Amino acid sequence: MPEADYGRRVFVNCPFDKEYRHLFEAIVFAVHNCGYVARCALEVDDGSEVRIEKVTRIIGDCKFGLHDISRTDPDVATGLPRFNMPFELGVFLGAKRFGRTEQKQKSCLILDVEPYRYQKFLSDIAGQDIAAHGGKVESAISRVRDWLSNAMATSIRLPGGEAIAARYRIFRRELPVMCESYSLRMDELTFNDYVAQLEDWLTQNPRVAV
Amino acid sequence: MKPKLRTIITTNRHTSVPRKAMRAAAKAVTAARDPETDRIVRGLASPKEELPETARK
Description:
Shape of chain A: globular
Strand content of chain B: under 5%
Oligomer: heterodimer
Number of helices of chain A: 7
Order of helices and strands of chain A: EHEHEHHEEHEHH
Number of strands of chain A: 6
Strand order of the largest sheet of chain A: 2-1-3-4-5
Strand content of chain A: 5-15%
């Protein structure tokens, strides 16, 4: 799996459903465009591995954690809300609190739709900075970019959120063409396929330092 | 010190399509792109701002 070191890995904890997919893919793009590597539970398709083992292993591998807790609506099929995102945020914060030296360096970005809404359903994290994306791709990209830029050495120049969003729009326009060239529909792309294609596109299209 | 750009990390993931085909696809779309779009991708130009409603009249 990804060879990037601990300090360059970002655990992405967010909904994986169709309604959230546009934000998820934009967030993954922003992470990679900033020179980091996105990791999530979708990267391993091993039925023999218990899900919690997989999630905790990936969390342990990543210095950074991006947690979107915006999905509070009940599931259409069951009528019940899903608690996986807040749960995995808790595991991440627990690793930071009780883990060894490397784990204590963990940094996280918590995203919601609105800035203070979380206080009504997850008041235990009151006092932490929560960033709002308003359900918009451009906002989500900017929030990710700003957060990761704070963790970087000042000698490294990171393009602004708007510039990354502009690159993302072009990537999205070109993605169906790339998929078509190897006879795959966009909805057939696995997470690993998406990331690999994204990495190859970014490598092919480096930003020019000016 | 001159600021530098962050290098993009390429990972070795298990994909459903050969990685070679993905690299070729990325190369092909890059080659087929118009110069203006290419400049935006490389950070040498900004996307054209849409004019506000009042300015379009």
